[in-house]
Specification:
It is a multi-pass membrane protein. This protein has 22 helices and no strands. With 495 residues, the protein is mainly alpha-helical. It has one domain (2-238, 274-488): Up-down Bundle (Growth Hormone, Chain: A). Helix 2 runs antiparallel to helix 5 (116-148) and helix 5 (116-148) packs antiparallel against helix 6. Mean pLDDT is 83; it is low at 189-193, 258-266, 315-319 and 450-459.
């Protein structure tokens, strides 16, 4: 019966529930991106509130800590929730991860203290708490969608879930811009300046508004049934799995029972045993290494766009500090012309071209663009009119999202047995976020290498971009470690 059930899941026509699952799981990624990427403009507001004596600029060490603390929480969340997802089930933890995010969002907005240090320490604590929830959402969302989807459209459905990250980035930028307009003095016309009191209200409101998309889908997350593959293969309760799928798919019990059975999986080896490493060790290494390399590049570029595009912002022309509105507007522009189009393109290609081909091609094209703008970087740095640099740099986000940024999310949820699926996805995702921390810290250190005429900064930028190009080349090579393409295959075949 269970083999016939899986066959029906794999061959089911695309229907309403598939799109509902994309929405419910995707809103978690939407919320994740909102919080991770909203911190960049918020740092501008924090600088105005707490560092007036330092020209409203947050010290690099504090900036680095605020960016990295949520990523560190994400590492913990991916490992813990990933393992628990295979032990107690995907559904039981799904609402809990969302509760962590909502609590972290509210807590961040209510960060209190009698001094600057207390407020920033409180904010750091709640962003770590938020990161744990974000990390927990990754393996659960990916696995739930992979186990619900049919095999012909599984890649597109999972890519659609992950594409919500792009819309989350855009939403965080739009909300920040709107709040800054409402508190009009936060984006003043020279020579007036915003008041610290208004800026303090603004950054708290921006963070707390991030709870809205999470709360909107909490009810549906609690109502979603456990996936049939977990219930049948891990809990060994085939009748319950069949009953759950009758609620999900437009099929009767008789239709589910019909069909040609597949060969059952009789494997019983434990996690991290010799048998596990012989069968899945290479794929786990490939997933983890590819995600690690990708996130070094992706997060260092994404979280420091305002530093890379500094010549298009006001501080380069007037000497004034960049406002939160300007940083958010830049993020919105990049999201609209490169990030979101990349996610849309991969929806149409992932099940036609295949995961591994898209990943390898994406890494190669990213490497080419980084190298092309990195080698002559001194000329681009000194130019105030060359928008070709901004366009080319934006292409790296397009190729990342229509490439390894999406495939590294999809592959770990397809390559491993149901008993280890969220665990392995969590390990690979945690490796990615370790890479993100390295990228964030490394890029920030490189960006501080500056003297009065900017020459060292140009050299640092050239070195950074060429290094990112080299990392992409290594990522392309790592893609060859994968043992198989998962396009059009059943999850049970991949075991």
């Amino acid at each position: 019966m269970s083999e016939r059930l899986f066959q029906r899941l794999d061959t089911a026509k695309t229907q309403y529930y598939h799109f509902k699952a994309v929405t419910v799981t995707g809103m978690g990624l939407f919320t994740d991106a909102y919080h991770i990427f909203s911190i960049t403009p918020i740092l501008r507001l924090l600088g105005h509130v707490y560092y007036e004596s330092n020209d409203n600029q947050i010290p690099p060490s504090v900036e680095c800590s605020m960016l990295a603390i949520a990523l560190l929480g994400t590492v913990i969340g991916e490992l813990v929730f990933g393992r628990l997802g295979d032990i107690v089930g995907r559904r039981r933890l799904y609402g809990l991860a969302l509760m962590f995010m909502m609590a972290g969002s509210f807590g961040s907005g209510f960060s209190m203290g009698t001094s600057r240090g207390c407020v920033l320490a409180s904010l750091g604590f709640f962003r770590f708490f938020l990161g744990v929830g974000i990390g927990g959402d990754y393996p659960l969302s990916a696995t739930i969608m992979s186990e619900y989807a049919n095999k012909t459209m599984r890649g597109a459905f999972m890519a659609a879930v992950f594409s919500m990250q792009g819309f989350g980035i855009l939403a965080s930028s739009v909300v920040t811009m709107a709040v800054c307009k409402i508190f009009s003095r936060i984006y003043p016309s020279p020579p007036s300046d915003p008041t610290p009191k208004e800026a303090d209200m603004a950054w708290r409101l921006i963070l707390m508004l991030g709870v809205v998309p999470a709360a909107a889908t909490f009810y549906w997350r609690m109502k979603i049934p456990e996936t049939a593959r977990y219930t049948a293969l891990v809990e060994k309760n085939v009748p319950q799995a069949t009953s759950d799928m009758e609620r999900v798919l437009e099929m009767s019990h008789r239709q589910i029972a019909e069909g040609h059975p597949l060969q059952p999986s009789l494997s019983s080896y434990p996690l991290f045993s010799k048998q596990f490493f012989l069968r899945h060790g290479r794929n786990l290494l490939a997933c983890s290494a590819a995600w690690f390399l990708l996130d070094i590049v992706f997060y260092s570029s994404s979280l420091f766009q305002s530093k890379i595009y500094h010549k298009y912002l006001r501080d380069e022309h007037t000497g004034k500090a960049v406002t939160a509105f300007e940083v958010a507007s830049l993020q919105a522009i990049v999201a609209c012309y490169s990030t979101i189009p990349g996610y849309i393109a991969v929806l149409f290609l992932i099940d036609r071209v295949g995961r591994l081909s898209i990943q390898a091609i994406g890494f190669v094209l990213m490497a080419i663009v980084y190298f092309a703008i990195g080698v002559p970087y001194d000329r681009y740095w000194r130019s105030h009119t060359n928008k070709l640099f901004m366009f080319l740099y934006g292409l790296t986000f397009f190729f990342a999202n229509c490439g390894p940024n999406t495939t590294t999310f999809i592959l770990p949820a397809e390559l491993f047995p149901a008993r280890f699926r969220t665990t392995c996805h969590g390990i690979a995702g945690a490796a990615g976020k370790v890479g993100a921390i390295i990228g964030v810290v490394g890029f920030l250190m490189a960006s501080q290498d500056d003297d009065q005429n900017g020459h060292k900064k140009a050299l640092g930028g050239r070195f950074t971009l060429v290094t990112l190009s080299g990392i992409c080349v290594v990522g392309m090579a790592v893609t060859n470690l994968f043992t198989k393409e998962t396009k059009g295959t059943s999850l049970e075949e991949n075991e």
